[in-house]
Amino acid sequence: MKIEIVAYNIDSALKAQEGGADRIELCDSPGDGGTTPSHGTIEVIRQHLNIDVFVMIRPRGGDFHYNSYEYHAMKRDILQCQKLSVDGVVFGILNPDGTIDKKRCRELIEKARPLKVTCHRAFDMTRDPFEALEDCIEVGFDRILTSGQQPKALQGVDLLGELIKRAAGRIAIMPGSGVNEETVQDIVRKSGAREIHSSAVAYTTSAMEYKNLAIAGMGSEEGAEFKLRTVDPQIVRNLRTLAEKVYYTGV
């Protein structure tokens, strides 16, 4: 059983490793569902982690159809990831009709090798998950991160199980979104997944003594300077214990 933890900052990455994660998916901007982190952050994390580091390649939030400038930025970010010796990259590009953009995805995968490549939850926005599954296999993705085209993986567990069945080992299917201590066993049991993706999220209090409480998030309703996102290592340990109990015993 492989445990991947999404990390949105350096502390989260360190805590994920402390908890025994097999790899992290390193992102920025949790409010956007994850975008490409800074090269400085990638470099520091690579220097201090001995587990696999997969980096999100996503130039902005919003949809997954990119213009030529954004596509060029994705290529440049992949090049930088190779220079920084990460283990994998994570991306997905769609056509306006809801299909996988096979041409561009194939080009990015070829550019990324020998790094591992995951198709992220752009997959969940495709018009036909089984068509998208075959397209992802055709262009060379190693795995798909998906919630089964539902808000949470437990809601999409039937589709997750069918995707795993149809993939037949040609590509890994990794459930993500709402995978936590309460849901992980049902998700693994009902889908047959061998990899899971979780945030294992926790929050710590800022070390700031002075606080201007009149401003939060520098004016953004979503921000909070004094509540810092991280990962709880014990949740990571618990996820492994719970998932492996089902995986190895079927109970």
UniProtKB/TrEMBL annotation:
GO molecular function, one term: copper ion binding
GO cellular component: cytoplasm
Entry annotated with the keyword Protein biosynthesis: no
Pfam families: CutC (PF03932)
UniProt keyword terms in alphabetical order: Cytoplasm
Lineage top rank: taxon: Bacteria
Compartments it resides in: Cytoplasm
UniProt key word Cytoplasm: yes
Cited InterPro entries: CutC-like (IPR005627), CutC-like_dom_sf (IPR036822)
Family recorded in the similarity comment: Belongs to the CutC family.
Protein name, entry field: PF03932 family protein CutC
Native source species: Dawidia cretensis
